[in-house]
Amino acid sequence: MSALFNFHSFLTVVLLGICACTYLKMQFPALLEQKTGFRGFFWKAARIGERLSPWVAVGCFTMGVSVIFF
What we know:
Blueprint: H1 7-27, H2 38-51, H3 53-69
Helix pairs in contact: 1-2, 1-3
C-alpha cells in the first residue's frame, strides 16, 4: 500500500521529512537557504522542525512506540 493511501504511513513520511530537513539545515545551512520554489518546501519543513521541536520530538516518540507495538 502506498504512503498516500495509508494515513499512518503518510504521517510517518511527513514527520521523518521534517526531522531530516531540520537536521540538514543544522549541518549544512547553505543547502536550505532558498525560501522559494522546490527547495523552499524543504526550508519550510526545516523551519517547522526548528520552531516546533518539542512537538516534533513527541511525535517521533509516539511514532516509534506505535511502530514497535502496533
